[in-house]
Write a structure and sequence with these properties.
Elements: E1 30-39, H1 43-55, E2 61-64, E3 80-81, H2 96-119, E4 131-135, H3 138-154, E5 159-162, H4 163-170, E6 177-181, E7 185-186, H5 189-198, E8 204-207, E9 212-216, E10 221-225, E11 228-237, E12 253-263, H6 268-272, E13 280-284, E14 291-294, E15 300-308, H7 316-333, E16 342-353, E17 359-364, E18 367-371, H8 377-392, H9 398-404, H10 417-427
Parallel strand pairs: 1-2, 1-11, 2-8, 4-13, 11-18
Antiparallel strand pairs: 3-7, 4-6, 5-6, 9-10, 10-11, 12-15, 12-16, 13-14, 14-15, 17-18
Helix pairs in contact: 1-8, 2-8
Length: 437
């Protein structure tokens, strides 16, 4: 496939549009020669570039993003930095070590993010209050029991909640059971990545709207861009589901397109019609259930569709159709707010591997890659990015060991079989979703 700048589409919908206008960094023009290049300025690439700059304070690191910072997947998720991952199904004792490994990676990424946010005074609505994992229907009620057992077995703090308790705190009677896990952070994702990008060390040069169109492998590596080129000794690929465009993990990852909507800011009276909490985040215990937030600035955000859409964002017309689904889910949860309009809708793409594994390590002697977070990229991507920089420089740590221990990815067939298989794989997420949608 021949790439062009049009291969990396974007739109003006999303969390970034809720922020003050930011002046983007320049495009890369002309020829550059540097020791290190990071492709992708999402959470993984930003973390990798920052760590490389610490390891090599006298070297220039170039960080390239195909879009403006905040318009990629890292700025379009629902803003959950996960500490404790949920694994569907009953607790599997044979997988206990793997559960702990994944959660150690999550915790490492969360600790790094916390350090970066606080030391650089990044205003991203950072909330260290954990999440509610909820159930409204039979399938998710079963998952609630499984998740509670998992948390007990791994000795993670949590609180079981009944319908009355959830109603009192959240202001909706839809959920029958739930679990509050205090570990985890809610945040404004576009504000996070913009803040991380604008506080990079001085020896990192960020170029926005500068997609890499071709990689010529060798020693050194040459990157071809629309208006220039870069020659580097080491290249770090942090483009997640778009890595196949550059020739990496082509048969191992697909992109699932999700969509959601924001309300306008609620009035004081409208906020008072909800529960006792003035900010919260809900993750459905059904994999196809709605993700719902009451944000720090008083909006309700709801995301409840996911589909195989060729790993691209939705058109305005398609997004308008999906917003009807968002609307129905919103009014089902908050009938007292049925008069509150949505201010905007957005779509975003997440990278999913066939067996829900991650990718970490060498693609060749001088090209490394990290990605494939299956919807948990904010904390995990941060950890993978920093670990990849250390790994490339001969570092040894328990975090690197945990990242390297990711299971091998299952193979995904080529098109047209990929399209059919991916369509049904994503659709399977919604079997039995019922009231949780």
């Amino acid at each position: 496939m021949t790439l062009s700048a049009q291969s990396f589409t974007t739109d003006n919908h999303g969390w970034a549009e809720l922020l003050p206008t930011r002046t983007a960094k320049q495009q890369l023009k002309g020829s550059k020669r540097v020791p290190y290049v990071v492709i992708g300025a999402g959470v993984t690439g930003l973390s990798c570039a920052r760590r490389l700059a610490e390891l090599h304070p006298n070297d220039e690191i170039i960080l390239l993003d195909a879009r403006k910072v905040g318009q990629g997947a890292s700025g379009r998720n629902s803003g959950y930095a996960v500490a404790i991952s949920q694994f569907s199904g009953p607790f599997d004792k044979s997988q206990a070590a793997n559960y702990r490994r994944v959660n150690r990676i999550n915790e490492s990424g969360l600790n790094l993010l916390r350090e970066h946010v606080h030391s650089n005074a990044i205003d991203c609505q950072w909330q260290e209050e954990g999440f509610f994992h909820t159930s409204a229907d039979g399938y998710s009620a079963r998952e609630c029991r499984f998740f509670g057992e998992y948390l007990n077995q791994l000795e993670h703090d949590h609180t079981l909640l009944n319908q009355d308790e959830l109603t009192q705190q959240l202001g909706t009677s839809l959920y029958k059971t739930g679990i509050h896990v205090p570990s985890g952070v809610l945040l404004q994702p576009a504000a996070l990545v913009q803040g991380l990008a604008d506080s990079l060390p001085n020896n990192v040069t960020l170029y926005e709207s500068s997609p890499v169109l071709k990689i010529e492998r060798g020693t050194p590596v040459k990157l071809i861009l629309e208006m220039g080129d870069v020659i580097a000794d080491k290249v770090f690929v942090a483009t997640n589901y778009e890595a196949p465009k550059l020739g990496f993990i082509k048969r191992h990852i697909i992109g699932s397109t999700l969509s959601g909507s924001f309300t306008r800011k609620l009035t004081e009276e409208e906020l008072n019609s909800l529960g006792s909490l003035k900010k919260w985040g809900v993750l459905s215990l059904h994999s196809g259930g709605a993700t719902v937030r009451l944000t720090l600035d008083g909006r309700i955000s709801l995301r409840n569709t996911a589909e195989y859409h060729g790993a691209v964002l939705m058109s305005d017309s398609l997004l308008a159709k999906r917003q009807a689904i968002h609307r129905a889910a919103f009014e089902k949860r908050f009938p007292q707010l049925a008069h509150v309009p949505f201010e905007c809708a957005w779509s975003g793409v997440e990278g999913i591997s066939q067996n829900f594994t991650n990718f970490f390590g060498n693609q060749s002697d001088n090209i490394l890659l990290a990605g494939g977070y299956n919807g948990s990229g904010v904390s995990r991507g941060t950890a993978f990015g920093a670990a990849l920089a250390d790994y490339a420089n001969g570092g040894q740590s328990s975090l690197i060991d945990d990242c390297l221990a990711s299971a091998p990815a299952s193979w995904i067939p080529p098109r047209p079989f990929l399209d059919v298989g991916a369509f049904f794989k994503v659709k399977m997420r919604f079997i039995g979703v019922g009231l949780d949608r």
